[in-house]
Amino acid sequence: MTDFRDRDDEDSQGIPRRTAARTAKLASLPLGIAGRAVGGWGRKLTGQSAKEVNAALSAKAAEQLFEVLGTLKGGAMKFGQTLSVFEAAVPDEMAAPYRDALTRLQAAAPPMSVRQTHRVLAEQFGRSWRERFREFDDEPTAAASIGQVHRAVWHDGREVAVKVQYPGADEALRSDLRQLQRFSRLFQALIPGTEVKPLLAELAARMDEELDYRGEADSQRAFAKAFANDPRVKIPRVVASAPKALVTEWMTGTPLAKIISGGDAATRNDAGARLAEFHYSSPARVGLLHSDPHPGNFLLLDDGRFGVIDFGAVAQLPDGIPRNLGQMTRLALDGRSAELMDLLRESGFVRPDSDLRAEDVLAYLAPFTEPLASERFHFTRRWMQRQAMRVGDSRGQDFRVGRSLNLPPEYLMIHRVTAGTTGILCQLDAEIPVREIVARWQPGFDD
């Protein structure tokens, strides 16, 4: 069977995969941002306030960043989508242009040519792949970081979604992530309070999992089985799978991004509660954690259920969320600093030779437990901005404590996904009974 990964079609608009070209685009980011900084100094000299100039520079930097990432697809676009859930932490004066740039990134990237799409499907499902479908729409309905989605009708009449991986996605991912790691400090400045370097390292470590759609199919089958009879959540079943193509049942509904931008309070609250319950319950119900929380992967279906797609990034948690995380959360919420410090040391969050004080660690962690202090909590952008600025202010005590704490590798994914889910809740401006959800599903919290 022919391998199409090393061929460049003149009529293709698919993923740009020549390393030199991709590197040049990524390298333009720090140069462009540095150039604008020089211009900003000039505007300060002419009388504009530092706040006004910095907001304008940050907005333009975000715009350029996501324009380049969206064009490149691959690891660059994946990184941009991962950053996007932290948009709620961006200060108000630059949030609007930042949000616009993120929306364009999440919407779609230029599609592959029809001929290229057919080649991939023939390679994955055989030359007679068309016989498996009654209908197949050559125009993609959505574009993701490493593939695009087509709507079709399976041979038995079911409406299906067909995800087709971009040729060269593997090469593009590796190239992008190497380059992005070089510029991690630059991106750090755009998202206060977010650790960009370990985020990129995690994406690189999980790259091979996302490139093999067979692994994604296995994860989706497990989720679909566990939630098969759930009246609140819908996971589409897998119809067929191959290394670079995946066919699943089609779901029709309202994307979470539209609910964020225009949904009424009741709808936003309902979506937020369902998102939180899905996040906290999955490890207990499936032994897995959906690890790609951005609005493009969630929708509200016409029958009222919460739909979840894209299981390429999934964390294996066969024993559920570790009990000590629930215990730490409870101790921080109750202000029990000495017991909290002992458990943090025991679990590897505080190094044996650390001179951190228990009261300082409690002061750093306690504000994160604020949503659990009452029956309902209103997740807002302003609340998340306060947390981000608090831990991101290099002059403050919380910044120094955060830098001194250790995050064991086995907790990195849980921490990142929980932070991402919280970011979406703040984008939704949702008021939800999160304490009840955590108490039900997080071992150790309500023991």
TrEMBL record:
InterPro entries: ABC1_dom, ADCK3_dom, Atypical_kinase_ADCK, Kinase-like_dom_sf
GO molecular function: ATP binding; kinase activity
TM segment ranges: none
ABC1 atypical kinase-like domain boundaries: 104-329
Superkingdom: Bacteria
Keyword tags: ATP-binding, Kinase, Nucleotide-binding, Transferase
A Pfam family: ABC1
Keyword Nucleotide-binding in record: yes
Similarity section: Belongs to the protein kinase superfamily. ADCK protein kinase family.
Name of the protein in question: AarF/ABC1/UbiB kinase family protein
Record organism: Amycolatopsis acidicola
